[in-house]
Amino acid sequence: MKRIYLASPHMGDEEMKYIQQAFDTNWVAPLGPNVEGFENELKEYVNVKNATALSSGTSAIHLALKVLGVKEGDVVFCSSLTFSATVNPVIYEKAIPVFIDSDYKTWNMSPKALQNAFDDAVKNNKLPKAVIVVNLYGQSADYDEILKICNKYNVPVIEDAAESLGTTYKDRQTGTIGEIGIFSFNGNKIITTSGGGMMVSNNEEYTKNALFLATQAREAKRHYEHKEIGYNYRMSNICAGIGRGQLKVLDERISKKKYIYESYKKAFENIDDIEMMPIYESPNYWLSVMTIKEGSSIKPIDIMEKLEKENIESRPVWKPMHMQPVFKGYNFFSDLDEGSVSEDLFNRGVCLPSDTKMTDEDLNRVIDLVKCCFVKNLNKESITV
Ligand SMILES: *Cc1c(COP(=O)(O)O)cnc(C)c1O
After folding, report:
1. Is 163 near ligand 1, meaning CB less than 6 Å away?
2. 328: CB partners within 8 A, 6+ apart
3. Tens-digit pLDDT profile for residues 4-45
4. CA of residue 117 relative to chain centroid, distance
5. Best mutation site among 79, 86, 164 for ligand 1, i.e. most ligand atoms within 8 A of its Cβ?
6. 137 lines ligand 1 (CB under 6 A)
7. Ligand 1 pocket, 102 CB below 6 A?
8. What is the mean pLDDT of residues 230-240?
9. pLDDT score recorded for residue 385
10. What is the average per-residue pLDDT within 321-344?
11. Which domains does the chain have, with CATH numbers?
């Protein structure tokens, strides 16, 4: 049986053209015209002044923290409901993460929990150096509320837009709303360069400094002169070539992702136990996620096992960072008086296949199998989608 993926690379028609050009001109490494081309084309797409193409989204977050001056012992507030790559760079710098819960409206950082964390920080006389806000599954966070709070304390926001390229919040592209934004082009993201990332900002100093650090902190001298420790974090000209081709099909990918989400939504409309992730602002619909209502006899594992048997990939919602063994002992601020929104979503959520290469037939296969879990005494054949 054909495997159906959560999200896998989906090439367009022009990636090979840019790669071929790189080979023809021997711009195989290290940099080359595709890197600058990709940066310029992405800048134009999201409407931002500066961009630095990097080897991963993780390295982009790391450099964002560096250029904001995050150092050992500094505190960084961070969305708890995310992938560990959001937080790892905080630890690379020996800084202290403080995790902030989500709210049910956006599934992203809860302004209420954020305010509580700031109240506590003021009490302890130790404000955070930065706040990392994640746009989960391609959905924007509530930036008006979040920025209102952060601006009050003059603390910069890093937008982890790894999953949300093309998503807009009040007509602005996510990634460009905070002081610094980062994108990922890993294989599972909405567009890919096989592996890669980008740091964007309207602040030229930040991007200049990031570029310097990403290229081994080499001073502008004929010989190799170093006054600081740098990194080898630049994107290659081959990867950037893939990115240029992929950027051309980004809008197409978003439409298909939206179609997938809406197909699930419609198909599950009459199943009381299923709720689709709420839509807030204008997402890129990177992953379609459903939750099972509290008290249902069906659990996420039942759905995941049923799909896996048919060679279909699905996943739980990200396990919150405040529940991860590796981040045990760091502070967490919940949106609720008891328990937390992120933990609840983790317990009840299933990420459904959202691969843009899925045919209607594939999509209906998934829908039928999920429906089968909920509709008793109804076999697969009797369900028409
Ligand atoms: C993928 C991802 C990252 C990391 O990006 P890489 O390019 O894989 O390093 C960071 N944050 C989130 C939310 C992600 O989904």
Report:
1. yes
2. none
3. 999 999 999 999 999 999 999 988 876 789 999 999 999 999
4. 23
5. 86
6. no
7. no
8. 96
9. 47
10. 98
11. 15-247 (3.40.640.10), 250-374 (3.90.1150.10)
Check if 139 has its Cβ closer than 6 Å to any atom of ligand 1: no
What residue owns the CA closest to ligand 1's atom 5?
57
Q: Which residue has the tokens 């037939």?
A: 361
Does 295 have pLDDT greater than 70? yes
Report in angstroms the alpha-carbon separations of 83 from 100, 122, 130, 169, 212: 14, 28, 18, 22, 27
Q: Is 82 in the pocket of ligand 1 (CB under 6 A)?
A: yes
Quote the pLDDT of residue 1: 83
List alpha helices for 127-174, DSSP H.
143-152
Per-position DSSP letters for 4-65, written without gaps between them: B-SS-----SSHHHHHHHHHHTTTTSS--HHHHHHHHHHHHHHT-SEEEEES-HHHHHHHHH
- Amino acid of residue 351: C
Q: Note the pLDDT tens digit of each residue in 129-174.
A: 999 999 999 999 999 999 999 999 999 999 999 999 999 999 999 9
Give the mean pLDDT of 56-62: 98
The minimum-distance atom of ligand 1 relative to the CA of 82 is 13
Question: For 100-128, b where at least 16 C-beta lie within 10 A, e where not — what string?
Answer: bbbbeebbbbbbbbbbbbbeebeeeeeeb
- pLDDT (0 to 100) of residue 316: 98
From the list 76, 18, 46, 96, the residue with the least C-alpha distance to 199 is: 46
Tokens found for residue 265: 């939504």
Is residue 180 within 8 A of residue 159, CB to CB? The reply is yes
Whether 142 is in the pocket of ligand 1, judged by its Cβ within 6 Å, is: no
Predicted confidence at residue 376, as pLDDT, reads: 67
CB 37 within 8 A of CB 243: no
Averaged confidence pLDDT in the chain = 96
Residue 379: pLDDT above 60? no
The pTM score is 0.96
CA–CA distance, 238 with 31 (Å, rounded to integer): 9
CA dist 257 and 284 (Å) reads: 7
Q: Which of 19, 30, 41, 56 is nearest to 236 (CA)?
A: 30
327: DSSP letter: G
